[in-house]
């Protein structure tokens, strides 16, 4: 397969919708994935979670079926988060799931289950590591390992940490089959780019997995006209949707993926039941696509390995919408029309999809489309929709057609049709 950028990122740009999975020891304290740092838990205070981690209900086949039912085309799961705990059977550390009561390679089971359901698989890997002896304190946040007197003035050898980090990435890209996305997290302050030996790392990765798609959090400037080799294949706005599509300095649109939590936490937080509605998720997905981007929607499974029931129900409702309307998402991107006041357009070649979020009184105004649209059908059921007013004067290939109208969803989103 040609490994040039456009070819490498084609599936990613067409998939549009993925599942993010933040899971690890922090599911036991169930106060989010930063609990160790924010509460300055010492090695001893965090150790019990390692000793008791046993997700007896972990069944990634169920997770994969849920992601597929929701219309997601890929997933990205934490192989190691900032606490340094490895969900995979790394030979470079004992701080791993196979040495907990779980006794399982959780990443191997994940990649196999999601591939079985036809989804592409990605791995999240934290370049920050609060557990490794040779990782320095992070800015003004006390490094938990340095809380203890034993570590206060312990000299570190950061190069040894980088060898470990590179070695683990090599393990992940060697021992788990084809990996479609590598999601690094995150560079900060002057800890960026070559401080991670990023060029060496990316060259090693591409030698092992030439088609892999990499995020932009190793550093560098993905928007540069000539970005660094390690600047990544896609931008990764977090907990927000960009005001418009993302382009580089030359004005060329670049792939991007907004990562958003379904509630308010990445890692499991038992008290956080503040979940976004299916309507919000669908609108967010349509907004991303209308701006030429992807949505990576996060779930945080609990310590037993179960995705919270609220998340399951929301993803199933999103899936019902996708069952009827996925053509207006997959392979679509920004339309060559300005955003209308009643919702958003997405486009795939000569097919325009108009997503009616807010119906006004009377027929939806499409003034000025002056007959460029050949016919209109409701995407959900194929019903003909009479276009009440002339269409906007935009050049569309002759066989373009669009349908407007109201596939009534429980939440009132009307979806267009092609
Ligand atoms: O610190 C992490 C955080 O825990 C989470 O993994 C997010 C996901 O994009 N990334 C970092 C915060 O930007």
TrEMBL record:
Coiled coil: none annotated. Gene3D superfamilies: Glycosidases (3.20.20.80). One of its GO terms (cellular component) is lysosome. Its EC number is 3.2.1.51. Keywords: Glycosidase, Hydrolase, Signal. InterPro entries: FUC_metazoa-typ, GH, Glyco_hydro_29, Glyco_hydro_29_N. One of its GO terms (biological process) is fucose metabolic process. Residues 8-326 form the Glycoside hydrolase family 29 N-terminal domain. It comes from the Bacteria. It is an enzyme of class 3 (hydrolase). The keyword Signal applies. SUPFAM superfamilies: (Trans)glycosidases. Signal peptide: none annotated. Pfam families: Alpha_L_fucos. GO terms for molecular function: alpha-L-fucosidase activity. The record marks 259 as: May be important for catalysis. The keyword Hydrolase applies. PANTHER family: ALPHA-L-FUCOSIDASE (PTHR10030), ALPHA-L-FUCOSIDASE-RELATED (PTHR10030:SF37). Alpha-L-fucosidase is responsible for hydrolyzing the alpha-1,6-linked fucose joined to the reducing-end N-acetylglucosamine of the carbohydrate moieties of glycoproteins. Belongs to the glycosyl hydrolase 29 family. This is alpha-L-fucosidase. The lineage of its organism: Bacteria, Bacillati, Bacillota, Bacilli, Bacillales.
